[in-house]
Amino acid sequence: MLLFCSLLQIFLILLHHIMIYDFYYIFFKDFINYNKLFNFSAEEIFIILKVIIHNFRLTMNLSKKKKRNIIKIIKNRIKKKYIIEQLYGNKCHICGEFDTKIHLRTFDFSHFNSKKKKIDASSLFDTKSCSEIVKTLKDEVGAYICSNCHSVFDMEYLELINEIYDDKELIEKIKTDYHKIKMKFTAISDKMINNVKDPLKKTINITGNYKNYLFAIYYLSNQGIDITKKSIANYLGVDYDAVKSFFLRHRNFLEKYINFPYGNPTIYSLKIKGLKLISEIEYFINFYQTFQLEECINCNFNVRKKCIANSSNQCSHPIIKN
Ligand SMILES: [Zn+2]
Description:
Blueprint: H1 2-21, H2 23-32, H3 42-55, H4 64-88, E1 107-111, H5 130-140, E2 142-146, H6 147-152, H7 155-159, H8 161-164, H9 168-184, H10 190-193, H11 210-222, H12 229-236, H13 240-254, E3 258-259, E4 269-270, H14 272-289, H15 294-297, E5 302-303, E6 306-307, H16 318-321
Helix pairs in contact: 2-4, 3-4, 3-14, 11-12, 11-14, 12-13
Transmembrane segments: 7-28
Keywords: Membrane, Transmembrane, Transmembrane helix
């Protein structure tokens, strides 16, 4: 009994820790849970994520490598939420209590038989797309369930139950709970994975700063200036040749957002899709520039809502530190 109590305590402390300190989820949940998220293409999601990381004061001064890593972590959270919702809806399919919007971190992939576990589900997210992840998980035989249900559905723990408890009634109750979960447990099937697409898989590599170009065109048109390569170059403070080469290299992608009419010089304008993307980007810039964290309010390195901390001895926040 004593052993169980201490194990339970450790579990609860860990759960508490996980729920409170998943700061990647806490800070970026408004984007992860954005109801229009999957109206965006994978490329647009990536562009907006980059903008968020560049405008949020706790991440804006980090190195390129750290920024890339944070974007990857956020994308992994989005993948996990998307996969669970496509397979099971937004609640734990066993208890119906925990939901993916508030408790995403408490969902785990649970093997039907933990002794046959070959792969740790979380190791798949960095390199695989959503449809690839579910194919692999289907072969593992298991389901996404909340950690409450997972803790009861732990085979090894069930085998020890007679040694942990003396109370026969309690043992029966735990066994009943276990069997209830087992009955409801729906392992990922071929049919279920048909619903899972790849909303985060980019078809082109986003290397350039698309956001700056879209915004340049937007501001120039608001000022009534003809939008040519020259005026864009002036506005962005770059060479004419840099603009020319950007348009050449990225024309296929840019044509979704910008009109490329014939003319000498070409006078560009934004398509409705371009204006819509700019308005979404502006929404998230504004949201993350003004996102208040209690721990930052009285910090010396928080100047006009901008974090000027750029090393770990200035800010103790784990996002800066790691
Ligand atoms: Zn549950």
